[in-house]
């Protein structure tokens, strides 16, 4: 059997692996960037979180809760509500929502896009 008769040559294998790496890199970069966490209090946008850290949420002078974002997921610590359901929700990733009804707080991930149109219908 001649080396020309092989199904995959070394350069073919290199080409396939390179293409897979490029596509995975594009997918990973597209899925990781452009995410922001929006925090609404009483139906109004209170803050947008893009950087990992710990943020205290207030409504006027009243302390509501501490929101912790680790860069990938968000969770609530030390909420000032009776049942603490928002704390028990746990860590929420993209597409997830945390709701605290007594404090009228809604925390959700939103994908930010530079494009003007998400979906076009005819």
Give the helix/strand layout.
Elements: H1 10-32, E1 35-41, E2 44-49, E3 53-59, E4 62-69, E5 74-77, H2 85-88, E6 97-100, E7 105-111
Antiparallel strand pairs: 1-2, 1-7, 3-4, 4-5, 6-7
Word description of this protein:
The protein has a 4-stranded antiparallel β-sheet with strand order 2-1-7-6, with no helix packed on it. By secondary structure, the chain is of the alpha+beta class. It has 2 helices and 7 strands, in the order H-E-E-E-E-E-H-E-E. The N and C termini lie far apart (57 Å).
Key structural traits:
122 residues, alpha+beta, 4-stranded antiparallel sheet, 3-stranded antiparallel sheet, 35% strand, elongated
Gross morphology: elongated
Strand content: 35-45%
Give the number of helices.
2
Order of neighbouring strands in the sheet with most strands: 2-1-7-6
Return Rg in Å: 23 Å
Number-wise, the strands total 7
Mean pLDDT metric: 81
Cα separation of the termini = 57 Å
Find the structural class using helix and strand composition. Answer: alpha+beta
Biggest sheet overview: 4 strands, antiparallel
Uncertain regions: pLDDT < 50 for 5+ in a row? Answer: none
Helix content: 10-25%
Order of helices and strands: HEEEEEHEE
Short précis:
The chain has 122 residues and is of the alpha+beta class. 22% of the residues lie in helices and 35% in strands. The chain starts with 9 loop residues before the first helix and ends in an 11-residue tail after the last strand.
């Amino acid at each position: 059997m001649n080396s020309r008769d092989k199904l995959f040559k070394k350069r073919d294998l290199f080409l396939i692996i390179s293409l897979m790496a490029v596509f995975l890199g594009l997918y990973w970069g597209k899925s990781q960037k452009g995410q922001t966490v929006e925090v609404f209090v009483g139906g109004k946008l209170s803050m947008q979180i893009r950087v990992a850290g710990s943020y205290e949420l207030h409504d006027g002078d009243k302390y509501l809760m501490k929101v912790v974002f680790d860069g990938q997921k968000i969770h609530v610590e030390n909420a000032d509500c009776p049942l603490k359901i928002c704390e028990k929700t746990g860590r929420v990733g993209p597409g997830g929502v945390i709701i605290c009804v007594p404090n009228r707080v809604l925390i959700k991930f939103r994908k930010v896009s530079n494009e003007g149109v998400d979906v076009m219908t005819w």
